[in-house]
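Hello,

Our lab assistant flagged a job as stuck in the queue for most of the afternoon. It eventually completed. Since we weren't sure the result was trustworthy after the delay, we are filing this so someone can double-check. Below is the sequence as submitted and the structure that was eventually returned. Let us know if re-running is recommended.
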Amino acid sequence: MRFPRVLLHCCLLLTAGVGATLYSTAGLAAEKVILKYGIFQESLSVAELTSFAETGNPSPTLAAYMKLANKKPEAIREALTRQVTISSIVLDRALNNVVGERVLDEVGGTIHTSTNTANRQALRSALVLSASDDGKLSLIEAIQKYPTQDVEVEGDRLVETAVKLSDLESGIRKLLGVFNQL
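-- returned structure --
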């Protein structure tokens, strides 16, 4: 009778450990954005940047920062909210190869971890999670779903990166068209 009781305790401990791990990582998402323009940088909450993306009304801090960086709020908002329609499964497969890693490296030059480590993995996760809800991804959603507390955004590359994501979508569509013809 002693063995089953020990086994039961081990199973309970294992289940509790796995549950605690899943609970602690389930809510992990970026809370702070470090927005950088050349030598200037400003720390904002993700909620503050999201509010700007949704309404077009920047907070006083963000407005002053964009003015200092000589950036048009409309261009930044458009880059943040530009949507790319793509299945999260197709996106995950597209990003898990040599070409996808190159795309991740290019986009990772704009959106990256504050320590500049594990950028590919973090960005891949953020992009796929962004597309998982509705089959669409945007830079603001990727920032919201970024799997670290802080995310750095190179503001001077934001518009260019939004265009690259649109190019990724069209490139994947062309590839799928080729495969469908085979």
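-- support follow-up --
The delay was a queue issue, not a problem with the job. The result is valid. The first strand starts at residue 32 and ends at 37. DSSP finds nine helices and six strands in the chain.
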